[in-house]
Design brief:
The chain is α+β, with helices and mostly antiparallel strands and 226 residues long. It is built from eight helices and eight strands, in the order H-H-H-E-E-H-H-H-E-E-H-E-E-E-H-E.
């Protein structure tokens, strides 16, 4: 599918809906509220409602009042194309141009609308067909296949459990910098040594470090249970 068939706004909305639903647990609600979309896209609720209705009329979104927004099969195809572009661009910026992982999101947001499909396929080959981006999110294959790790939020672990970092939520650069400063990144093995009262923080240990990490920051981390 060629995203050039769509407006930039449509591309952003479809990618946003996919990204909001991508890590919903199996059996969870496969819809996102218009309010959540407004927050993610930085626009007003009335703008979201109008755009969602227009994209629904085009067969790209499935909107049920009071139940939220989902992707049609057509919309999902376009969304995966945009997600693939974004994550390959992030990977290229880190691997080839020396960007830090907290710097690439906004750059990729701009570039993903301008590059051609041919360039994306050549980047994929240049990078060795990577399976995940610098934050651990899976990169969809050219045919739309997505292989997601069997990861859970770090907050799901109890004291004494271990997990290997599989994904870190990338929307807040400050959080990425804070985790990097601690030495917490992809593939780091973490042990939850304690959950502090009222779950305001967790005590984590890993090779070379340990710290009390605020629950809000810990919520950015997803792990595979070890």
């Amino acid at each position: 599918m060629d995203p050039a068939d769509l407006t930039t706004v449509a591309q952003d909305y479809l990618k946003a809906v996919w990204s909001e639903l991508e890590w919903v647990p199996a059996g969870g609600q496969a819809r996102v509220t218009t309010g959540r979309l407004a927050d993610r896209l930085g626009v007003g609720p009335s703008t979201v409602s109008e755009t969602v209705q227009r994209l629904s009329d085009q067969g790209l979104l499935d909107h049920e009042p009071y139940r939220g927004v989902g992707l049609t099969d057509l919309g999902r195809g376009y969304a995966l194309t945009m997600v693939r572009r974004h994550r390959l661009l992030e990977t290229w910026l880190v691997a080839q141009l020396g960007y830090a992982w907290d710097e690439v999101h906004d750059e990729a947001e701009t570039l993903e609308h301008a590059v051609s499909g041919t360039l994306i396929e050549r980047l994929d080959a240049l990078l060795g067909r990577p399976l995940r981006d610098p934050h651990g999110d899976p990169i969809p294959a050219a045919d739309g296949t997505v292989v997601r790790p069997d990861a859970v939020p770090l907050a799901d672990l109890t004291a004494g459990e271990h997990g290997v970092v599989a994904r870190i939520w990338d929307a807040d650069p400050d959080d990425l910098r804070a985790l990097a400063a601690l030495g917490i990144g992809l593939d780091v093995r973490l042990t939850v040594t304690a959950v502090l009262p009222r779950r305001e923080a967790v005590t984590l240990a890993w090779e070379g470090g340990s710290a009390d990490v605020a629950s809000r920051l810990a919520s950015r981390v997803w792990v595979t249970r070890a």
